[in-house]
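A.,

Following up on our hallway conversation. Structure tokens first:
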């Protein structure tokens, strides 16, 4: 019974980390079976550019059943731009869509990318 319900802890939660080092440490302590149960993952602001890092982390590979990645797309765009003051809402929306597309290409097609960029603006 424990084994059956233990997987629910991983399947029903959204996991989030403050930085890449703590995420890597936590992942290294999880069994393959535990990683297989994870469905939802939130990328911390400090890791928002993970898809561009030299490590090329592919969360869909680390978590085979991953369904959703939550990411602050506003922060991703803001990291690449020195000054967004002169940009129109349409320009920023295009930049966000472009970043979301890059993340989607990095991950599995079945993984949903969710970004709440307007809340962070």
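Then the amino acids I'd put at each of the 121 positions:
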């Amino acid at each position: 019974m424990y084994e059956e319900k233990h997987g629910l802890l991983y399947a029903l939660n959204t996991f989030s980390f403050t930085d890449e080092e703590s995420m890597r440490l936590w992942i290294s302590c999880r069994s393959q079976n535990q990683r297989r149960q994870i469905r939802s993952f939130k990328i911390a602001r400090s890791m928002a550019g993970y898809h561009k890092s030299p490590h090329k982390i592919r969360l869909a590979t680390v978590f085979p059943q991953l369904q959703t990645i939550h990411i602050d797309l506003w922060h991703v765009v803001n990291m690449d731009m020195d000054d967004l003051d002169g940009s129109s809402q349409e320009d920023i929306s295009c930049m966000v869509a472009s970043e979301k597309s890059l993340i989607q290409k990095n991950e599995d097609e079945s993984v949903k990318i969710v970004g709440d960029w307007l809340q962070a603006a």
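The chain has a mean pLDDT of 79. Curious whether your intuition agrees with the design.

B.
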